[in-house]
Amino acid sequence: MVLIREFELKAKEVFRSGRMPGFIHVYIGEEAVATGVCGQLRKDDYVASTHRGHGHALAKGISARDAMAELMGVVTGCSGGRGGTMHLYDPTVGFLGSNGVVPPGILIATGAGLSAKLKGGDQVAVAFFGDGGSNNGAFHEGLNMAATWDIPVIFVCENNMYATEMPFAKATKNTNIASRAAAYGIPGVQVDGNNVLEVYEKTGEAVARARRGEGPTLIECLTYRWFGHHEGDPGVAYRTKEEIAAWKARDPIQKLHDDAIAAKLASEQEFKQIDVDIKGELEDAAEFALSSPLEKNETALDHVYFNPAAD
Amino acid sequence: MSETTTLISSASETPSRQAERIITYAQAGVEGVREEMRRNPDIFYIGQGIGPRGGNFQQSRGLWEEFGEERVRDTPIAERAQAGMGVGAALAGSHPIIDIVFLDFTLEAMGEIVQQASTIHYISNGRYKVPMLLRAAGGGVRSTGPHHSHTFWSFFAHIPGLKVAVPSAPADVKGLIKTALRDENPVMFIEHKGLYNTKGHVPEEEYLIPFGEARIARAGKHVTLVTLGMMVQRSLDAAAKLTESGISVEVIDLRTLVPLDKETIFASVAKTGRLAIVDEAYASCGVSAEVAALVAGEALDELDAPILRICTRPTPHTFSPSTDAYLVPSVDRIVSEVADLVGKKI
Predict the structure, then answer these.
(1) Which pTM does this prediction carry?
(2) Shared domain check, B231 and B139
(3) Fewer CB in 10 Å around end: N or C, chain A?
(4) How far apart are CA A109 and CA A181, in angstroms?
(5) What is the pLDDT of residues A277-311, one digit of tens each?
(6) In whole angstroms, how far apart are CA B48 and each of A73, A121, B42, B110, B222?
(7) A89 and B128: CB-CB below 8 Å?
(8) Which of A145, A294, A296, A311 to mutate: most B Cβ within 10 Å?
(9) CA distance to A12, A87, A166, B20, per residue, from A230 (Å)
(10) Range of B328's domain?
């Protein structure tokens, strides 16, 4: 969680310095979801992510260097600088891509799960999407198909209460997304998305169920993004300052810290060391990304088509 | 590979040879898919009605019986899920066949085809590939009407990252679909619903037809007709009539739009000096525009006359049996317009 938090803070810093191309959607405030979910996954399991996908990528195993370089659009990025913030890919850790569209990751993960099932493996696939994605037709098509065919996929809805600027309560009549699982005949569970241990526990049940061949689960994680939809959106025109402050007071990292200290599972010194180590990792990642070269025109036409003779 | 192509080209010109096996366009497709599914266990097939029913056009007949319901799966009416799941399965190492059945309904899956399938190999810098076959039948036949007659092949040919086949002959269906299933890119395989029951010689042995090689369906010397799909037979019928008036027509069946065989077109135009493009799709921004631009840009000196485009007139598709025949290029219209092009009255 700290890695994700520090990664996003560093990305914001570089973006605001004007050196980062494009625009970014940061995940700060939602770290417990990616961390708790991906903590239950093996390296060969699959994840299909969203436009707000840096946290998912890091939690699934893409390095801070590879991800930050991709945000900078340089050749050392995990997609060679061609994808950018919303198109992080890494087949070595089963990361099927973040995505610029809402929410085809639901379908992509379902397809990966079907592939695993047909090949006789026991991998599972996870689709991350938001409350906005839950109102899109792909949600229905994907959940219906996955349920019907008992596909090993876990649908993780990060309900941060706003689809860009649209409050969820104004976007649907039934705001309990987990309850929609009943429509597909699959389990649905709502969890505190700012409690990493609860996310981890409920994901574990869903993953075990999927690996047993019993099909998908829908997990709704109630959470909140601290900042605007993208960098540059202050995020206050449609949200009150009181609401933002209340959610910041429920910081998932602070909660884990407080719980662990209270249970005497970790010391302050250990937490401080994590902060120091990760800040150093991010300094290195930013330095790596900012010093890496951009793609040259000579290779810009490569990989439009897969060509076994050339690849 | 080119020897096989030659064999097929000559075979289709001599359909009366006794040893030839004659099967339908639909059967040829099934045979190609069956051979590849036997060869590659990673191939699976999903679509609406492609299981026990054998496909709306019998384009998957017998596959469910042979390969079972794990690998041959009927889906709900959810084209977007079919295509999106195809992408995910391809990324995870399978080679899905996604049968959308009607080309019209690829619109329901367009985001997944264009924004995901076609782009991921490039934007992952080659780290992922997306081997999938998207199969759908286009075109109109006997008043299939506004929502079942579309001819969207140029949509897909416009998109880098997709390959596009539009076969017209049974032998080509088999050879091209086998090639498509060995290609690890997303391939749009667009058959024609009016051709599924047409018959032709299809070799029983295994063969592949490469993408990017047009077929000279008829040799001629006065005018080149570049065409595809359903319009190949109409162009051949028109060519036979035009011969009676002393006009010798060369008919080129493009077979694939991506990659497009420019060289065969240029060589033909160099011989004939005249070019007409016959397309069941609309003229505007379509295949005919692309072929015309290529010839104008790279072989203009070979032309003795303006380029002629004979295409479906630009209206939505109609159910009306009379005007349907007026709107879509007919043999008579091809004959008349080509005769005008070469300056002969018929």
Answers:
(1) 0.95
(2) no
(3) C
(4) 17
(5) 999 999 999 999 999 999 999 999 999 999 998 76
(6) 41, 26, 20, 17, 46
(7) yes
(8) A145
(9) 10, 16, 14, 65
(10) 215-342
